[in-house]
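Before anything else, study the sequence and fold tokens given here and see whether the fold suits the sequence. Record follows:
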Amino acid sequence: MRHRIRGFVSAALLAATSPALLSSPPAQQVPPQLQPPANEQLLLQVHAKGDQVYTCKSELTEFIWTLKAPDAQLSYKDGKPFGRHFAGPSWEATDGSRVKGEPVAVAPSPDANSIPWLLVNVVSHDGNGVLSRATSIQRVNTKGGKAPASGCDASHVGQELRVPYSAEYLFFAPK
């Protein structure tokens, strides 16, 4: 009887600590095409919360929502303000340092209703500060922000639409 109870308790503890039963899901794996160059290391990570701003445009025989710009506030993990993300695409820290990037790789978000994950090369720097050394940026863990599949037609050309999103931005710099 004692062995059965010990076996039951052991099995219960094992099940309770099983990764499949933990309350927080495991972090999503970043696809290989979004990895920064091997000679770079993580500089910092910030959380973005804001909107992807789209404009309804007419392209030949169809109407399509086209990305105008992101408009998001950036914060550290503890919630303290870091800066903002806006057209360019650009990222600006509260210390005045700013980078502009150019996407070089894209991967679908694991969430089909969210904007894709990106790898961005930094193409310009302004100001001295935390972003001065950044050379690559990953956008991962996206939620929302995707343009709607409908609603853009002749009567809406030129109209802007803001779609809420959140994401994590990881900034990389040379080792």
In short: Residues 1-26 have pLDDT under 50 and may be disordered.
